[in-house]
Amino acid sequence: MALPSWDDVVPLALDTAPVPAYGAGSLADLLPTLVAHQGVDGFAPVIPELAPADRNCVFLIDGLGWEQLGAHPAEAPFLTSLLQSSRGGTGRPVTAGFPATTATSLASVGTGLPPGDHGLPGYTVRNPATDELMNQLRWNPWTDPYAWQPHPTVFQRAHDAGVHTAQVSAPHFEHTPLTKVALSGGSFRGRLSGEDRMDLAAQQLAAGDRSLVYTYYAEVDGKGHRFGVDSDAWRGQLMYVDRLAQRLAEQLPPRSALYVTADHGMLDIPFDEASRIDFDEDWELRAGVALLGGEGRARHVYAVPGAVDDVLTVWREVLGEQFWVAGRDEAIAAGWFGPHVDQRVYERIGDVVAAAHDDVAIVATEREPKESALVGMHGSMTPVEQLVPLLEVRS
Fold first, then answer.
1. pTM of the predicted model, to two decimals?
2. Fewer CB atoms inside 10 A, N or C side of the chain?
């Protein structure tokens, strides 16, 4: 059978990409809505379904997407029982934002801004000042955090307005640059065990007449990356975090709302050549590329000078039936990173941006050996990655 030629390729139309619901129902809209109801100036209740509460707690479970939760009622009976409470009782999810990855989503949650404004638009992106790839999760190579993300967090603004504000997480997160630029403000309380975090989060919630408390659990994501969604290890973590959420819900002080959400979903990518396209072995995709950023399902591609148009053409022709492939300005105009992109963020975005539509990934086995070996992946705009719960318990 003859192979299809480039002339046979019909690239995915960019307007078919399900752009996150910035300004109405995304992670960036959650804290602004909560603190607006608490009387903090400068914010509006942009998720209209959420009712006011004097004390608000956000429990973010890394990697627990809406579709994964819905597919595992036996492992998560408590969280499943709350599905109809999601998004203020509508039974609907919210969207993570693009790319659907931890550094980007945590910055969106903590700053109340879309990626185009807070400036963490991917797992790795180019630092225009150095032309190096900057890993925004590990903050490597070192970059001044407050120059990279200068906006105050919602936590800080709420603290300044007299709201009792606290973050309860693993101790090693306290001094990380990502915590500083995304989640700081008020006090940080480090606890190793999940049970201790839930207990302390409830105590911190009760510590003020108006309170804003954030707590976090990572290992649902960790086991999904390593072993895959629906593996025994992943399901064990889901069972554990279900018990944690119930433990916290049962300790809510009066006039409180608990919101259980996530930073992204996840899917397993098969280990075959058709599903894992190896950039390091593909001369067509490498041609004219100076840096490969992002991650397997949400790539930022930085071209050598003068090669942008050629790189966009080739990536669209090679991948356009499996990925939404856009030039930087096209992705910005389509709203992938929010309704606005700050000038300091503009060149962090790839000259070409590729977001997976199918169950495929662009790996790089030589330059990204650890990331390329992951079973579960995320990053793009498909529902399995974008949709996250916003489960609600009120006291």
1. 0.96
2. N
The answer to whether 94 touches 27, Cβ cutoff 8 Å, is yes
DSSP string, 278-299: EGGG-HHHHTTEEEEEEETTEE
Looking at the DSSP bridge assignments, the partners of residue 73 are none
The counts of H helices and E strands in the chain are 18, 18
| Residues with Cβ within 8 Å of residue 13, at least 6 apart in sequence | none
For residues 385 and 255, the answer to whether their CB atoms sit within 8 Å is no
Q: Which of 153, 148, 146, 145 is nearest to 112 (CA)?
A: 153
pLDDT in tens, 20-45: 999 999 999 999 999 999 999 999 99
Please, which residues bridge with residue 216 across strands?
A: 60
Query: What is the DSSP code string of 141-194?
Result: S---HHHHS-SPPHHHHHHHTT-EEEEEE-GGGTT-HHHHHHT-SSEEEE-SSH
* Overall size of the chain counted in residues: 395
Are the CB atoms for 103 and 178 separated by under 8 Å? yes
Cα-Cα-Cα-Cα dihedral of 264, 337, 185, 223, to 10°? 20
CA distance 24 to 95: 10
- Report d(CA 377, CA 270) in Å as an integer: 11
